[in-house]
Amino acid sequence: MSTNLVSNKASDSSQASARPEAIWYTRCPVPTAAGIAIQKGWLKDEFAADGIDFRSIRHSQDPKTREAHYTHTLDDSFRQGGNAPALYARSEGKDTVLLGLHWIPQYQAILSLPESGITTIRQLRGRKLALPRRVNDAIDFWRATALQGYENALRLEGLSLDDVELVDLPIERSYVDEDVAITDALTPAPRSIKFQTREMVALLRREVDAMFGYSVWGAAVRSQLSATEIVNLATLPSIDMQVNNGAPETLTVSGGLLREHPDLVERYLAKLLMAADWAKTNKDAARRAIAIETGSAEYWLDQGCGADCHSRLQFSFDKDLLQALEMRKQFLLEHGFIRENFSIVEWADDRPLENALKFLRCGS
Questions:
Q1: What is the pLDDT of residue 17?
Q2: Averaged pLDDT for residues 29-53
Q3: Last residue of a domain, one of 242, 262, 280
């Protein structure tokens, strides 16, 4: 792991540094410990004692601030969620540090309409597959998600992307514009429910033969369209075939905040660890919170992210997770979603997490 500046000496010196006026946070609409801690108000309360405001990046009325959810350009900020924006930001040279990873198998299926007659992966050869493209976004995480899903599925039958026709579906509206609909009620439903609208329309109009459905929203799409599920990658035993935007999910922080105030970072992590532990022993309440986070009904959680999603919110630097993130990075590089390579190991710093765990064990 990188030796990214967390030590007792650094922690001591940080106490003398001027505290930031605000700590910014953001997370994706997926199951995360951050989402639980934010809903319960634990993080806001934690920093209020220091006179530090706790602000949501995605609730900001400033488009540039909201954009930081995808580009991590805002100082003194944390982000937990899909890995494509985090990898993109680091590839672009942004000063960020990877604090941990976690894995929740999410629904990843190729869907077709029953009348198409397509029921197997091999029958996708020569067929048209929907591929959305956000023309006004620096990192098109949804396009990358669908593309890797297709590639992984086709590999199961010895096929490649060259064996299908990828139908480009341009979308003018940016992710940042859609974030305006996110409210203080915390739910991203107005935004999340539209993730796959363009592909659904193309499928219904017979412009394409199949589309990729992802997470709770993909499971809902399958039911809404009475679609044929050709394959669901989340059911496969090999995690290599499941690597995608949410597998694994990343937790990152602004490098400057870690260097200057490592104690604040450790306290943030401690609250997330507490939230993950709380979720394990409060299944029903945790599932309600996760449904709010994903902008979905609880009904879809079992299919969308697993019946045990409430018990899988802990994050770590497990070697399998690091390897999966390396695979994800290589995919994004090969397909032009990120431009510059970098070392995952050097980006990661495990000491804040270790210190947060010690903090909790000591009951401080």
A1: 72
A2: 94
A3: 242
Residue 12: predicted pLDDT: 46
Residue type, 323: Q
Query: In degrees, to the nearest 5, what angle opens at C-alpha 204 toward C-alphas 161 and 293?
Result: 80
Rounded Cα distance between 300 and 294, Å, is: 10
Stated as kind and residue range, the H or E segment containing 102 is strand 96-102
Q: Are strands 128-134 and 165-171 parallel, antiparallel or unpaired?
A: parallel
Name the nearest CA neighbour of 179 among 165, 167, 190. 190
Residue percentage of the chain with pLDDT more than 70? 91
**Is 1 inside a domain boundary?**
no
145-167 average pLDDT score: 98
Percent of the chain with pLDDT over 90: 80
Residues 212 and 113 in one domain: yes
Same domain, 117 and 31: no
Q: Residues 46, 151: one domain?
A: no
List beta partners, residue 78: 25, 253
Mark whether 122 and 168 lie in a shared domain: yes
Angle between helices 83-91 and 63-71 (to 10 degrees): 90
**Containing structural domain, residue 310:** 8-102+245-361
The two beta strands, 22-27 and 53-56, are: parallel
Count the domains in the chain: 2
Question: What is the spatial distance between Cα 357 and Cα 3, in angstroms, rounded to a whole number?
Answer: 18
Question: What is the CB neighbour count within 10 angstroms for residue 222?
Answer: 18
Tokens matching residue 75:
């100082």
What is the separation, in whole angstroms, between the first and last Cα of the chain? 26
Instruction: Confirm whether 353 is domain-assigned.
Output: yes
* Same domain assignment for residues 86 and 32: yes
Q: Are residues 143 and 227 in the same domain?
A: yes
pTM value is: 0.92
Report the CATH number at residue 223. Answer: 3.40.190.10
pLDDT digits over 301-330, tens only? 999 999 999 999 999 999 999 999 999 999
pLDDT band at 182 (very low <50, low <70, confident <90, very high): low
